[in-house]
Design goal:
GO terms for molecular function: flavin adenine dinucleotide binding; oxidoreductase activity, acting on CH-OH group of donors. This is Pyridoxine 4-oxidase. There is one protein chain. Helix 1 packs parallel to helix 10 and helix 3 packs across helix 10. This protein has 10 helices and 23 strands. The chain is globular, with a radius of gyration of 22 Å. The protein has one domain: Glucose Oxidase, domain 3. The protein is α/β, with parallel strands linked by helices. Bound molecules: flavin-adenine dinucleotide. The site of flavin-adenine dinucleotide (FAD) has 40 residues, from helix 1, strand 2, strand 10, helix 6 and helix 10.
């Protein structure tokens, strides 16, 4: 079987690229996806998102024990099936700050990755509940809903008022280019149900004769011919096969992409030989620059009155803040404090004793961590467990910013404006007050915010595995289009920027 374009992974980015590239009927596009179609009705229910992990549509990875997290190893969910991680994610839609994309431009030397240049791609991807304006789109595939007071929890309404009482501005939403301030989270929910990227980009165009989606297909390796990829080795209907293509686009995500390259003999020779793989193409940046957001879970309060169940997806409002002052409204975000409509705590605190309806959590975290980790294969096969080491909280920058985030969570959590909700602070509790106590608490409380990026970073430097055009360095017909190319993480959840990145790539793909 031969295709003009072979897309590996039908996840968030892969669904976008498949739609846009197959719009040209002369181009034969094939999409290969390891997972099967997901029909679990619980996947659709926004409030259940934290409880659907570990099912057959989750790759269910795990990190190595993290020295910065008191030796804990974290579960890393990743979606498997058409829709990819949008099958399991928390549905928050936040584009990031202008300043985040300035860093992309700095890494790539390419203005096409600036906020202004990406804005048309953001707009093209969405159908915003508030209608079109200078920064929002109303005609794109993905529904983006900004909840009003009818849907927001009364706790969240008071939480936002509490920030205002402390001098933090109220902003219209997170998607105007500046994120500092309080606002409900925009969500990719329609009629009370999760919308996956496959639902709106891939599935509606599957009747195109030039588009083929093959599910349940594990891509084992790329097959190289000189400086080109001639095809991919897959298992299809129980048999091993090679599928050939003129162009190959990697959309298997921050974990899937580098693992596939390494299994193919592309990467750092010392990493490959340790896993029993011969080096075919040396590329030492593959699998490096791994970074992620953490959230402290949490500042947990017992409530003085019943907390009604969420009508959305539990974590209803993230407030982004500058450490230069609460009243700063433009520029980079340093920390975030989020309000969860229910008790949420890491696995370190199983005995916190606060039942649903009796409490709430203020999550807190660092938006632009400087700690960097890596990802490696442990053997030559897809079934070999990857070695995932995000190296969390390695830098003093991250630890100090995390302490500041905890202080800000306690500031708003203890404010007069939340007095009617607050009975007592259960976590961290009165025993945590010094810097050392805060560090020790954070190491036990931090959980992943599920945003690993950067494992095939794009950059101007030859050390970056991917060029600013999203071509893999050293292979003329291989592109990488997904969260792995993000050189430095955006302040908030990354999904919106992954979609914009894919839209931007597709818009300039040669006809
Ligand atoms: C639990 C969770 C909560 C999250 N919450 C949010 C949120 O609220 N907001 C937000 O913005 N972001 C959130 N994210 C992050 C966001 O969902 C991801 O960053 C984004 O979906 C990544 O898109 P991608 O295209 O890079 O990869 P993915 O969407 O993960 O797609 C990769 C696809 O490739 C397939 N694949 C991998 N390897 C192979 C192979 N060898 N052969 C064939 N197919 C393969 C996978 O099965 C998958 O379908 C969350 C993520 C998770 C897991």
């Amino acid at each position: 079987m031969h295709s003009d374009v072979l897309i590996i992974g039908a996840g968030s980015a892969g669904s976008v690229v498949a739609n846009r590239l197959s719009a040209d009927p002369a181009r034969r596009v094939t999409v290969l996806e390891a997972g099967a179609r997901v029909t679990d009705p619980e996947m659709r229910r926004p409030e259940l998102w934290p409880f659907i992990h570990g099912r057959r549509y989750d790759w269910a990875y795990r990190t190595t024990p993290q020295p910065g997290l008191a030796g804990r190893s974290l579960e890393w969910a990743r979606g498997k099936g058409p829709g990819g991680s949008s099958l399991v994610h928390a549905m928050a839609h936040m584009r990031g700050c202008r300043a985040d994309f300035d860093r992309w431009v700095e890494a790539t030397g390419d203005d096409r990755w600036s906020w202004d240049a990406l804005l048309p791609s953001f707009i093209r991807s969405e159908s915003f509940s508030g209608g079109a304006d200078a920064v929002h789109g109303a005609d794109g595939p993905l529904p983006v809903m900004l909840p009003g007071p009818d849907l927001s929890s009364p706790l969240v309404t008071d939480y936002l008022a509490a920030w205002e009482s402390l001098g933090v501005a109220r902003i219209p939403d997170h998607n105007g280019g500046e994120m500092l301030g309080g606002t409900p989270n925009s969500l990719t929910i329609r009629d009370g149900q999760r919308v996956t990227v496959s639902d709106v980009y891939l599935d509606p165009v599957l009747d195109r004769p030039n588009l083929t989606l093959l599910t349940g297909v594990d891509v084992h390796r790329l097959v190289l011919a000189g400086s080109r990829v001639s095809g991919v080795e897959v298992s299809l209907h129980g048999a091993d096969e090679v599928l050939t293509a003129d162009e190959v686009i990697l959309c298997a995500g921050s974990i899937g992409d580098p693992l596939l390259l390494m299994r193919s003999g592309i990467g750092d020779p010392s990493v490959l030989s340790a896993a029993g793989v011969d080096t075919v193409l040396e590329s030492t940046g593959v699998g490096t620059n791994l970074h992620d957001h953490l959230l402290g879970a949490g500042t947990l309060y017992r409530s003085a009155r019943p907390v009604p169940p969420t009508r959305l997806q539990l974590s209803e409002s993230m407030t982004y803040l500058s450490l230069d002052g609460l009243s700063v409204t433009a520029g980079p975000a340093d920390i975030v404090v989020g309000c969860v409509v229910g008790p949420s705590a890491s696995e370190s605190f199983p005995d916190h004793g606060v039942a649903p309806g009796e409490g709430y959590t203020l999550l807190f975290g660092v938006t632009n961590p400087t700690s960097r980790g890596s990802l490696r294969i442990s053997g030559p096969d897809l079934a070999d467990e990857p070695i995932i080491d995000p190296n969390y909280l390695d830098t003093e920058h991250d630890r100090a910013a995390f302490r500041a985030a905890l202080e800000h969570a306690r500031l708003v959590g203890g404010s007069d404006a939340l007095a009617a909700w607050r009975d007592s602070e259960v976590l961290p509790g009165a025993s945590v007050s010094t810097e050392a106590e805060a560090d020790a608490f954070i190491a036990r409380a931090a959980i992943t915010h599920h945003h690993p990026v950067g494992t095939l970073s794009m950059g101007a430097s030859d050390a970056a595995p991917v060029t600013p055009d999203l071509r893999f360095r050293g292979l003329s017909n291989l592109h990488v289009v997904d969260a792995s190319v993000i050189p430095s993480i955006t302040a908030g959840p990354v999904h919106a920027s992954v979609l914009a990145l894919a839209e931007s790539f597709a818009a300039r793909y040669p006809a």
